[in-house]
Amino acid sequence: MRLTMLGTGMAMVTACYNTCFVLEEKEACLLVDGGGGNGVLVQMERAGIDWKSIHHIIITHKHIDHIMGILWVIRKIGQGINKGDYIGRVDIYGHDEVIRILKNMADTLLQDKIKKHIGSRICFQVVQDGESRQILGHEVTFFDILSTKDKQYGFTIEYTKGKRLTCCGDEPYNDQNSQYVKDSHWLMLEAFCMYGEADIFGPYEKHHTTVKEACEQAEAIHIPNLILYHTEDTHIEQRKELYSAEGRQYYQGNLCVPDDLESYLL
To answer: Domain span at residue 215?
Structure first.
């Protein structure tokens, strides 16, 4: 399974795209979040990911830098269905609130020729905290990250026997979710900025965290591979070097600070 970061930035970035990514296996893809606009289609094209291979989508929460791009993906798939270019169906997973919002937006903003496929080939799937689904032939378990702002779900996927990747959304890891996160081979955590610049970017008031704290959390639970994302973009050219230097003071495993479009083979 290959993970490709379509975007790595927080909501207001302009030097990179908002955080979203694709998990790809055997030419089938799972898209996780969509960023804030049709830039998600550009990023998929740049990454060499065929939009026609997207048959599963997870939306973590309702914030516009995560959900708005999904409307464009739905529109693209709907147009593809109408032209005979898209085979099969797409399943879109999220908790009750995010699915309700997406349905309302689709009903309000999309044309009837797209909306007619909702329920048959564009399928909204409400998932519960702790529920598991089969996606890409693998068990995916959703969990409430216990956000302090808005309801948000992360997930863990067993991508090969005995090895899991876990995404904790865009807020700090909560140890009440240890049953889902512990023993993960790969862990994805947000790191809004470097600890040394917390006074500049104010991550805590936004319910976010820093490179230092994310790395300390991963080190404490013995995670072998850590991916940091959802960052500011002031240091975009030096971000990998600067974040890695700070993070390695607190984390001994394989620390990944991806640029947009960077991929990892799990």
So the answer is: 2-265
Number of domains comprising the chain: 1
Measure Cα distances from 124 to 73, 92, 185, 254 in Å: 14, 5, 29, 36
Report pLDDT digits (tens) over 59-84: 999 999 999 999 999 999 999 999 99
What is the residue whose two structure tokens read 């996606």? 135
Q: In what order do the strands lie in the sheet with 54-58?
A: 122-126, 90-94, 54-58, 28-32, 20-25, 2-7, 263-265
Q: In which order are the strands placed within the sheet that holds 254-256?
A: 132-135, 138-144, 153-160, 163-167, 186-190, 225-229, 254-256
Domain CATH number, residue 79: 3.60.15.10
Cα 88 to Cα 111: distance, rounded to the nearest angstrom: 20
Q: What token pair was written down for 148?
A: 């302090």
Neighbours of 227 (CB within 10 A): 25
Interval 3-24: pLDDT, tens: 999 999 999 999 999 999 999 9
């230097």: which residue's tokens?
A: 245
